[in-house]
Specification:
Layout: H1 2-18, H2 21-49
Helix pairs in contact: 1-2
Length: about 55
């Protein structure tokens, strides 16, 4: 998921450089959503992965 966030961020950068502001904004928004989703899932996996197995 972090990979896709980086891909959308790169697409946003390239589109912004070429002047496609609508595509750049949409790609940046998608990248931001994917990044926050990755962070939430990562923190949840850290919390629930540390439970005792007893």
């Amino acid at each position: 998921m972090l990979y896709y966030a980086v891909v959308f961020f790169v697409v946003a950068l390239v589109a912004g450089l070429l002047g496609f502001t609508g595509i750049a904004g949409a790609s940046a928004g998608i990248a931001q959503i994917l990044f926050y989703l990755f962070v939430v899932l990562f923190v949840l996996s850290l919390i629930f992965g540390r439970r005792s197995r007893v």
